[in-house]
Design brief:
The chain is built from 5 helices and 6 strands, in the order H-H-E-E-H-H-H-E-E-E-E. By secondary structure, it is of the alpha+beta class.
Length: about 230
């Protein structure tokens, strides 16, 4: 004979088992099942497993909701959107080649001054010295472009070009051509002289190598002889 306690146990395990006659409580309706036949082998352990799985799922849902709420209130530093990161909706343009401004400065065609024993100039000179007289001769030739002024620095003798030859030489050189002269003492008032100029920006410089002899005279040193010097 089935005792009342056994009926209660069966009623708890199986919804199709009627409640004991002595039950006077209102039992909440159970979720209807898809079958009126209880699967074979169903036990309290199966019910316990379902309760356990259901509980874990509920915890997972609550956790996910909590995380979602936390993210929705997290300050992302992206304005008023409240997102923790920026959502990119456009395609960024591919970076082009970086253009770096050139800082290279072209060297000066002539830097006046003294380099060891040599004197470099493109600004003329003082006739108180041999180097100064030669620098002044070339300045009047290239800068002033005045044949008469050039001849004033010479003794007018056979060792130097005459006025016509000087005039032809000046006319063959562009007025804007940069130029430079360097003189180095060679003894006995003689100076190894290098003159160079650039006839055009894209042209190679032209160089003249000479040995110039000077002598003291009225107003200072004068050019008395100009000789070509083999390269």
């Amino acid at each position: 004979m089935v005792t009342e306690s056994e009926r209660w146990r069966q009623w708890l395990d199986n919804a199709t088992v009627p409640a004991p006659a002595s039950d006077t409580r209102r039992r909440p309706p159970r979720r209807p099942t898809t079958s009126t036949t209880t699967p074979a082998g169903r036990t309290r352990r199966g019910l316990g497993r379902r309760v356990l799985v259901g509980g874990v799922a509920a915890i997972a849902v609550i956790t996910a909701v909590g995380v979602g709420v936390g993210l929705s209130h997290r300050s992302g530093g992206t304005g008023s959107t409240g997102r923790p990161y920026t959502i990119v909706t456009t395609t960024a343009a591919a970076p082009g080649p970086t253009t770096v401004a050139s800082t290279t400065v072209a060297p000066s065609f002539c830097t006046p001054g003294r380099i060891g024993a040599a004197v470099v100039s493109n600004t003329g000179g003082d006739r108180a010295t041999g180097e100064g007289a030669i620098a002044e001769y070339e300045y009047r030739y290239f800068a002033r472009r005045d044949p008469a002024a050039v001849m004033e620095i010479t003794d007018g003798g056979p060792g130097v070009p005459g006025p016509a030859q000087v005039a032809d030489g000046i006319a063959s050189i562009p007025a804007t051509a940069p130029w430079c002269v360097s003189t180095t003492p060679a003894g006995d008032n003689r100076f190894e002289t290098a003159v160079r100029y650039q006839p055009a920006p894209s042209a190679a410089p032209v160089s003249w190598l000479m040995v110039i002899t000077v002598a003291p005279g009225d107003g200072g040193y004068r050019v008395v002889r100009i000789e070509d010097k083999p390269a």
